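My current task is to audit a protein record that another person submitted. Thanks in advance; the entry in question is below:
***
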Amino acid sequence: MRLPRFDYLEPANLEEALDLLATHGDDAKILAGGTDLLVRMKKGLLKPKNLISLKALNELSYIKEDDGYIKIGARTPLADIIASELIQNKARALFQACEEIGAITIQHYRGTIGGNILQDNRCQHYNQSNFHRSGRQACHKDGGKICYARDEGDRCYSTCQSDGATALMSLGAQITLAKKGDERTVDLADFYTTDGIMPFAMESHELLKKIAIPVHGPMQGAKSAYKRLAYRSAIDYPIVCAGVLLKPSDTQKNEIDEARIVVGSMSRSPLFLAQESSSLKGKKLDDTDAFKKAADASMNSAATFAVHNVGSTLEYRCAMVSEMVFQALKESAQAAIAAKG
């Protein structure tokens, strides 16, 4: 499969990149690592007239702690996140998620955290070659009026399979989107639409600039974990995953003050399960019965969104939601207990 023709644009800095986005809009795509974008172009899923490369934008590649947040530039390589002691110690769910993305060659030489967050939703019925798709009626995501993942589906049920997004949402991360002359910051949980065709609340002339993870103030001492299930240990996307954060109480020994449970690879966006998360407030860090109840409730909530589009049976994936959430809760709790001494 060959790439379609396009113009390659290489801005020297962020300002030039935003100028190009403002000029070309829908006719341009951002090229960071290219591990998702170039594959989609080869399959004929995308045919942008221009690719705007971020190769020279070293100003978007950094990891630092500032003003109560861990701040990460959108062009930061996955390998840098994996190697960062700051991420390992204070945002472990993200460290664990990035370890699982792709293969070592992708992590070290191509993949970026911004690219992972912004990878398009996937579906085994859609993410195929032109030849494969030509043998059947086009689906919603391909411009048609049918969904092969859900019978009589009136919309696209493509699935967000981003490891990084699931972990970052469990950490309560915010993202900053920049455009020419302006920028805005939103909670990652508010960044997603309910539209599988256009899953991000983002304009074509906007660029993902940075990610911020709160680690001080209300989040001081919080511990996190990420678990995922895939067919192979490398390259494969997750068929189900879960990110969890537990914040111990500052006054009550071994008691949970706040919890965040996020389930990924089950819907058009990672699912922040507010009710299941709040059920753990006031529970003990060693209360495995409470963890099991929250994990089972997470399974029931996530099952509502599950469809046949990531290469595994619904029954198995739903059952594994409970297992991934339970494992992540136990690991986070053990880390919190150990930190308390």
